[in-house]
Amino acid sequence: MKIACTYFILTTAYFLLSITSVWAQKNGETVFKETCVACHTIGKGKLVGPDLANVQNRHQQEWIINFIKSSQTVIKSGDKYADSLFKAFNQMPMPDHPNLSTDEIKGVIAYIQEQSAAPEPTTASAAMPPGDSKRGQELFIGNIRFVNQGAACNSCHNVDRKGFLSGGALGKDLTHAVGRLSASGVTAIISGLPFPQMKETYSSKPVTQQEIADLTAFLTDADKQDPADVFGSVGNYLLIGGACGILILLALYSVFWVKRKKLPVNFFVFKRQIKSA
Amino acid sequence: MDVRSQIAMVFHLDKCIGCHTCSIACKNIWTDRKGAEYMWWNNVETKPGTGYPTKWEDQDIYKGGWEKKNGSIHLKGAGKRRGLVNIFYNPNLPVIDDYYEPFTYKYLDLIESPEGDDQPTARPVSLITGKPIDIKMGPNWDDDLGGTPDYARHDPNMKNISPEEQEVMFQLEKMAFFYLPRICNHCLNPACVASCPSGAIYKRGEDGVVLINQEVCRAWRMCVTACPYKKSYYNWYTGKSEKCILCYPRIEAGLAPACMHSCVGRIRYLGVLLYDSSKIEEAASSDEKDLIKNQLNIILDPFDEKVIEAAKKNGVADSTIHAAQFSPVYKFVKQWGLALPLHPEFRTLPMLFYVPPLLPVMATVKKVDHKEQLEKVSPVAKKWNDNWLYDTSTKELWGTLDQIRFPLKYIANLLSAGDEDVIKDKWKKLMAVRIHRRRVTVGDVSHEKAEKVLKEAGLTAETADAIYALTSLPKFEERFVIPAAHREQAIEMMDFTGDTKGETGFGIKSKVKRGL
């Protein structure tokens, strides 16, 4: 009875606490800096997604709210503008934000409106240290660990590089990430973690500024490399090598089992027999 | 001395009429199942002939049995290293065409076909694929020297026989052949047991029956290669290998194995032999000419006090020792020295012995000039153009042995690793018994001649009578001396029999988890 009582009280308390935290209103600035800043700027040009300066003038408030809650739903509903926007930005879907309340989104729009009028001077990108591409590569494939013990990038992402093992296929192929998103966009994504999976992985083990710079430098190099350098010769080598390997194996087998029983003992007797068909 | 008991067999080849009743009895009981249709745990071959599977005796093809290298014996086609290297691809396996593709006929077509202009036929269908096939072969395709000459002329036992001698054999092929019934030999040094990578094959301690545990077998099929007699078969349906079990459920119940029980010619004898298992390796690795001698030396005298004492110490039951003393096999193999193992050169020390057939020996064939004779014959009569004389006279004492129509070498290749003297010795004994009995029953042989013959063969009149009696007049209990299996004691070692007392067949086979 006592245990049941304690259990009941504890669960109730936890339930109430979680409700209040969900309901807790966040102001527009907090939400924007937590959620949007990884991909969007206000008046500083496009990053991963479009510059949001004066977005309130371009669209109805209701449209913006729907788009933020689930961009793909809006695109699929046949909205032409949303579709063109999606295509313009490398078909990179904006993550859904189902846990943002309408009021919070309204707060964000208000914040954008405020900022569009008087932009706040930012320091983040300017303060980026110079990146080391070599180190970035080692970090990417996990030869050097992240300072905060985060998982190596190639457990989920792939980069085609000469002499490189293929990475994971869970996340996007990052060979031409910089070409698609620009270096600053990549930096913003790694620091801002807009995607739920990445947020889960790195929010408790954040990647340091230096590491971000190194990775960006590496991905910039990867984007610039000649695709022929990566694949051209290797593809042929694989095919020829494989064929040669098979031939060598077959030759080995035929030498190894040269004394094997090759035919049924009665082969020639059967061969002589008259067949019905 | 490590005395153990073995249930051994003797097949008297002179008595075999080649009726295949044994094969059918065995098939009906054990191998009339899916996946086992092609297996003949018991089969009867015509010799000379290539047998089943074709040319099974040619170990250059099948790599069965043991071979002696550097003083010790090794498996020819399997064994530890070679078995491991070839474990996923055994290069010497017989294929289904080496046995034969089993078939049946679509009998229902005879009854159910719609009315038409033609008679319905029952087409042959494969028992493996279920599709119509051309029947290419059967398990005794060359029976009675039938079929193509490819079969008999490719008999592996023809080696070292001159072309002229072979020609003589085939001139007379319609008369000169004999049958060789074969089952698993339940060898003392079984190559199948030695080759099994899973350890699924074992030789039963109490009676030496070689069995494959169907739950342990993992179908590596090394035993199929290793057995030089090709008496281990792979069941393609169950994915396990199978072999003759010497009808052990029948033996345990005191019945003769089905093939022996049904034998029309009563050629089969079964009884216990006591042997010294500590000398098996020594005997199996002896020189080829000593193989038979050493194999027979392992077999111990069941009347010897020391042997009995050692046997008892090893847990051989009194009833088994008693059975060994009355064993017809002991008489044929040891006392009278009439029976020989099949292909002793395979070095598996087979425990199935054959009394060599005298049938093709009792007459001679000479090359003669018939010209003079033919001129006397009426011009209308059919004339034989060949110059052979088939002579059945017994004027010369051992004359026929030296000029036999069937080369001695052939039988020697089969039963004594090519040693003709061994066969000659057996044949002399068999002929002496016949001459002696002819004196007794017909009386046209003089007493002196019969005595002389017996003496030369190393027999006495009493022994000759005993051989005659056990060969021609044996009762069921004299042919099969089966020791009590004492199953009740064996069961009591594992379970308390009181638990199942009075269930009279009603009960549960597996252990019950409920209840107390």
Could you walk me through the main structural features you see in this protein, from its secondary elements to its overall organization?
The complex is a heterodimer of chains A (277) and B (516). Chain A is built from 15 helices and no strands. In chain A, α8 crosses α12 (209-224) and α10 packs antiparallel against α12 (209-224). Chain A is mainly α. Chain A folds into two domains: 2-117, Cytochrome c-like domain (Cytochrome Bc1 Complex, Chain D, domain 2, Orthogonal Bundle), CATH 1.10.760; 133-229, Cytochrome Bc1 Complex, Chain D, domain 2 (Orthogonal Bundle), CATH 1.10.760. The mean pLDDT of chain A is 80. Chain A has helices spanning 2-23, 28-36, 55-58, 61-69, 71-76, 80-88, 102-117, 133-141, 177-181, 183-192, 196-202, 209-224, 227-230, 232-256, 267-272. With 516 residues, chain B is of the alpha+beta class. Among the domains of chain B are: 3-100 and 136-252, Alpha-Beta Plaits, CATH 3.30.70; 364-476, nitrate reductase domain fold (Orthogonal Bundle). Helix content of chain B is 34%, strand content 14%. In chain B, the strands form seven sheets. Chain B has a five-stranded mixed beta sheet, sandwiched between helices. A two-stranded antiparallel ribbon of chain B has the order 2-7. In chain B, α20 (420-441) runs antiparallel to α21. Chain B is globular, with a radius of gyration of 25 Å. The model of chain B has no long low-confidence stretch (mean pLDDT 88). The A-B interface holds A 257, 259-261, 264-270, 272-273, 275-277 and B 50, 53-55, 61-62, 89, 91-95, 97-98, 134, 136-137, 148, 150-151.
